[in-house]
Design brief:
It is built from six helices and two strands; from the N terminus they run ααααββαα. By secondary structure, it is mainly α. Helix 1 packs antiparallel against helix 2 and helix 4 crosses helix 6. The structure holds heme C.
Length: 214
């Protein structure tokens, strides 16, 4: 009997907490819709939602430690990867809060950086993995191009003698996949090709473009 009461009590406390969080989160959004409240309230609502989602994620990670390994952090520990541009200035200038056409939030800036970096880090993972590249001779890109060295993405398009035509970066990636790596070429919109291009370009951050250069 006592356990049943305790259980009922616990359930109602949990329900009340969830309701409170939900109400707090919605309050920010509802207030903004009704009276055109400030962007900081919208941002606060979004950040509250994000914090709630992060809290759920943390809980899930604690329960599933094996499945929750952070592959992005692990890949960044293994290999030097250049970070994406810092866009926090956007919150200060004309495009920042209060401006008619801008109104970016901290959450936008965080999300852009995270998503961009994730694609580049995925490229690093494939670049360093003979199996992911489909190599039949256990060869990966980094064996000849450590940390993306000597890939010169800034020189494309350029005429490549071994293909007898002007090629793009992705054609050269495919040339290396077919020849030294001995794998199957990737379609231009294959997610692996897109990630490889992203990684190779990211590693040359700050290098001026100079197409056609040998
Ligand atoms: C066994 C060594 C080797 C491996 C492995 C290798 N490459 Fe290459 N890569 C080369 C050589 C040699 C060249 C120069 C070819 C040329 O310009 O004629 C080259 C050229 C390139 C270029 C063009 C560089 C420039 O200066 O224009 C890119 C891009 C490139 N490789 C990407 C890759 C990628 C991506 C992988 C993995 C899928 C890879 N390579 C694997 C040897 C290798």
């Amino acid at each position: 009997m006592q356990t049943r009461i305790r259980r009922a009590l616990l359930t109602s406390v949990c329900a009340a907490c969830a309701l409170l969080l939900w109400a707090a989160y919605n309050h920010g959004i509802a207030a903004d819709c009704s009276d055109g409240a400030s962007e900081s309230e919208i941002a606060a609502g979004l950040i509250a939602g994000k914090l709630l989602a992060d809290a759920h994620m943390d809980q899930w990670k604690r329960k599933n430690p094996e499945r929750a390994k952070d592959w992005v952090a692990e890949e960044k520990e293994r290999h030097a990867i250049k970070p994406p541009a810092d866009n926090s200035d956007l919150l200060k200038g004309d495009q920042g809060k209060g401006h008619k056409y801008g109104q970016y939030t901290e959450l936008d800036i965080l999300m852009w950086a995270r998503e961009t970096e994730k694609m580049v880090v995925d490229g690093s993972r494939i670049f360093h993995d003979a199996n992911a590249l489909g190599s039949t001779v256990a060869v990966s890109c980094d064996m000849c191009h450590p940390d993306g060295a000597n890939t010169h993405p800034e020189t494309y398009p350029k005429f490549q003698a071994q293909m007898g035509r002007t090629v793009l970066l992705r054609d050269m990636i495919n040339w290396c996949i077919e020849h030294p790596v001995r794998g199957k070429r990737l379609d231009a919109d294959d997610s692996k090709m897109r990630a490889l291009e992203a990684y190779i370009l990211a590693q040359r951050k700050g290098t001026p473009l100079n197409y056609g250069k040998h």
